[in-house]
Amino acid sequence: MMPSVARQSKLYNTVSVHLNAMNYFGDLVPKTAFTSFRFGATRPNLGVSLMHRFAPRISGRAALSYGRLTGDDQKSADKEDNEAIYRYNRNLSFRSDVVELSTVAVIDLIENRGTYLKRRDFSPYIFLGVAGFYHNPKGEAANGDWVALQELGTEGQKAQDRAAKGYEKPYSRVQISIPFGLGVNYKLSRQFNIGYEIGWRKTFTDYLDDVSGNYADPADLSPQAKIFADRSDQSFNEPGNPNFTKFSGSYGLKGSQRGTNNEDDWYIVSGFHLSYILIPDTKSPKFR
Q: Stretch 22-47: mean pLDDT, rounded?
């Protein structure tokens, strides 16, 4: 049975372009609190999406986006704070380009049984779904080149007899996450909406930043991996650093703490989107 003309006009598609900001929560942030992030580490994110309206409150949306995450101990940790000095002296940093493909259910908080022409001026909503993403954390070499860290195994993942030595297996650069959040759409014109949205991504990896567990034995690392595994010497070599004798012996030693030991990382995507409603085909079916 064909849906009625009136019903067809209420079940429409929307295409959107997204201009967002990205931040992350992991090992290289100012505080260990979940809400901690460094504003200076914010990076852009661009995306496109297609959404189909299924019911007065419910739509489904598929989206593809690209953005960057970044973190830096020296820029985020306060060396005057006794709780943050460890991370400052650890001196790790990264950047990672992230490509995400997501599908979410979008639930309008205010029901709208009208057609797209009679939609509300303001429409707040929440969303929840699943996403797959590719990430590739990199560290900056002395010559300015960015080197992929997963390939190096900075925590012993590429060591011979890895399992026998107690090292984790190499992490995958393809991961899944649970995106959820809230937003609001505003009706600009007959077919255009503008909106703002903030969404959290609960990941299942502690390696968005390539930092998770303990320092590996330098003997188990390649020469290049050693450089990126422990960069505290650059911090302690700062002129007049008063923490050299206090902290220098606690970095880089096999088994000493490097990260937060398997507390999964998160990232946040927030920003604006411009949407265009595709006029639904409401022609009556022809019979012969």
A: 82
**Which of 194, 207, 160, 219 shows the shortest CA–CA distance to 273?**
194
Tell me the C-alpha to C-alpha distance, in Å, between residue 273 and each of 124, 141, 201, 279. Answer: 14, 36, 18, 19
Three-class secondary structure assignment of the chain:
CCCCHHHHHHCCEEEEEEEEEEEEECCCCCCCCCCCCCHHHCEEEEEEEEEEECCCCEEEEEEEEEEEEEEEHHHHCCCCCCCCHHHHHHCCEEEEEEEEEEEEEEEECCCCCCCHHHCCCEEEEEEEEEEEEECCCEEECCCCCEEECCCCCCCCCCCCCCCCCCCCCCCCCEEEEEEEEEEEEEECCCCEEEEEEEEEEEECCCCCCCCCCECCCHHHCCHHHHHHHCCHHHHHCCCCCCCHHHHHHHCCCCCCECCCCCCCCEEEEEEEEEEEEECCCCCCCCCC
Residues 254 and 217: beta-carbon distance below 8 Å: yes
Buried b (16+ CB within 10 A) or exposed e, 202-218: ebebbbbbbbbbbbbee
Identify which has the larger pLDDT, 282 or 208.
Answer: 208
pTM across the whole model: 0.86
